[in-house]
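Working notes for the structural subgroup meeting. M.R. asked for a predicted model of this chain before we commit to crystallization trials. I am recording the input and output together here so anyone reviewing the notebook later can reproduce the run.

Input as submitted:
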Amino acid sequence: MTDSAETALQAYLVTEVDGHVHAGPRTIRYEDLPEAEVDIRVEWSSLNFKDTLAAAGNRRVAGDLPHVPGIDAAGTVVADGREVLVTGYGLGAPHWGGWSQQIRVPAEWVLARPVGIDARTAMQLGTAGLTAAMAVEAIMRGPLELESGPVLVTGATGGVGLLAVGLLAHLGCHVVASTGKPDQHQLLESMGAAEVIGRDDVLAESDRPLASTRWAAAVDVVGGDTLAAIISGTMPGGTVAACGLVGGTQIETSVYPFLLRGVTLAGIDSAGCPGPLRVELWNRLADTWAFDGLDHITSEITLEELDDSIELMRAGKHVGRTIVQLETRN
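Returned structure, recorded in token form:
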């Protein structure tokens, strides 16, 4: 224990008492933190769908209870003041996560924050931003140029979707944003979407193994029937980056898009992103991939306000990014 560490910390703690799960802001002790090498004083965290599962006590995500959710965290190392961020790996699932004023994590999880990204901005991006960046990087590895045709983004009002729209537009793509929220068209256009379509529009010709080509590439956060329809309508040589499953975990498709059009299905695992690629992508997000509009899609809350935001996300009514302030400000 370092001299500068707090002995009492505020955190969002998930517990189980007599078979009932309880979750909310609690005071925990420094000694309660899991064993690891690096102590970080957290300034900001964020809210992601996986966090809502952990907050509900889902054992496949949270592991054993008690548990602190939060798959993102940004702050400073207690020992030396280094400005750092942590996203993915096991943070918040199942390792105790970022919804705590202080965390303790393995050294290999800790990433130095690139110049130009403060703790707040890091969490405006967070796992969602890294996921979007990995999806774009996967598309760029394919044979088609980004300007080859429309690039589809599904679930476009969520964190990953909005950040993917903003990043792709910044890189010069003709972005087609798909959403089931017609009242958010203006927001998507403000982030750079050239077209906004309903989610049912993506399913056109979905009963055909090879549909008319519509997309040069796609970032899909929905999965299920939507992902199958995207694959069948992707241009020859196109890449579909799959990074979500809210619409289902199973897809029914054929091998025709892969064999006759050379379509690539790229799975995106941001939690397991290799260290060198993780560093490279964060450096790009701080430099050539930095795009405008983050403040327009961000809501700021405290630990005490988390429950309301969690319920919105569970109900499918959440839009954009929600970041959680942990640092006490005078």
